[in-house]
Specification:
alpha/beta; TIM Barrel; 8-stranded parallel beta barrel; 8 strands; globular
Length: about 300
């Protein structure tokens, strides 16, 4: 008697999107941050392009190659079984590049990815000086992404950065145009007020993703309120990394000043806790199982 294969991460994400509760996906940037977020109880992770860039020591200005980003997304996807929403920037080139980008991301087993309509190289969506490609060019990229997708459950998200370039009305028009050619979710980046968030939810005729993080152009709104507006996914791309930056700074300063970080007390993860996060006991049992004298 045959059994059905387990649902893919993409299928699990699609099923989760049918629920009324908003999906909250924290931004992660490597295997360890993915494991920490999973241990906190999140159901979905967001592989943040900006956080991946900064963890490589460079700003979010489109400086990393697709190969560099794929390597980090692979780490994240391998670290937990949770569905991963990946940031594929502007697709790393034209529509043909998008075709290959989607294939490469999909091979990693991600559940979703978003493509944006910025000119390459792109910038953080909350920086000044962004530029967008014509809507028709982005539509061509979305069609390429659909053709490249092998798993029909892979969630394709169309992001528009037109709010800061052409205005809110243009961003809404682009969102509807992208939905009309098959985007599963629409992501209007960097609205600047709650009224704009409501207008997007009212006027874009598609399921919506929203970006929420401390200090950005978009005001912080509680998940329940966003769900009531009609948003389906909320990403929080940078807050985990910013907390890690501060903790690293404090530990570095302590070691420099007194030679030890012991004074940080409970702000320092325990030795055993650190190893539990990366499954050391599991690997130790494997080591024993495969040892020469284990037979």
């Amino acid at each position: 008697m045959s059994t059905a294969p387990p649902a893919t991460a993409a299928r699990r994400l699609r099923e989760r999107l049918l629920a009324t509760e908003l999906v909250v996906a924290p931004g992660v940037y490597d295997g360890l941050s993915a494991r920490i977020a999973a241990a906190a109880g999140f159901e979905v992770l967001y592989a943040s392009g900006g956080a991946i860039a900064r963890s490589s020591g460079v700003p979010d200005l489109g400086l990393l190659s697709v190969t560099e980003v794929l390597a980090r997304v692979r780490e994240i996807a391998d670290a937990t079984p949770l569905p991963v929403v990946a940031d594929a920037d502007a697709g790393y080139g034209n529509a043909l590049n998008v075709y290959r980008t989607v294939q490469e991301f999909e091979r990693l087993g991600i559940a979703a990815l978003h493509l944006e309509d910025q000119v390459s190289p792109k910038k953080c969506g909350h920086y000044a000086g962004k530029q967008v490609v014509p809507a028709e060019e982005m539509i061509g990229k979305l069609r390429a992404a659909q053709d490249a997708r092998r798993d029909p459950d892979l969630v394709l998200i169309a992001r528009t950065d037109a709010r800061g370039v052409e205005g809110l009305d243009a961003a809404i028009r682009r969102g509807n145009a992208y939905a009309a050619v098959g985007a599963d979710l629409v992501f209007v980046e960097a609205p600047e007020s709650e009224d704009e968030l409501r207008a997007i939810a009212r006027d874009v005729k598609a399921p919506l993703l929203v970006n929420m993080f401390q200090g950005g152009r978009t005001p912080l709104v509680q998940p329940a309120a966003l769900a009531a507006m009609g948003y389906r996914v909320m990403i929080v791309p940078s807050d985990l990394q910013r907390a890690a930056i501060r903790a690293l700074q404090e530990a570095a300063a302590a070691i420099k000043a007194v030679g030890t970080a012991a004074g940080l007390g409970a702000r320092l993860a325990g030795f055993d806790e650190r190893d539990e996060l990366v499954d050391l006991p599991v690997w130790q049992r494997r080591e024993q199982r495969y040892a020469a004298n284990s037979r």
